[in-house]
Amino acid sequence: MTGRQAIALALAFLAAGGVQAKSGPVWQVERTADPITGRSSCVVAVHDRAAGLSFTRSGGLYPMVEMNSQFGLLVGVGSGGRIRLPSGDILWRVDALPYRELRAADNPVGDRPDMPADTVAGVTAQALRMSRAMTATATLASGEAARAMLDKMRAGHTLQFRQAAAASVYGMPQESMVLTGQITAKGLHPYPLDASFRAGLAACGIDDRTGAAR
Question: Where in the sequence is the signal peptide annotated (predicted)?
Answer without folding.
Answer: 1-21
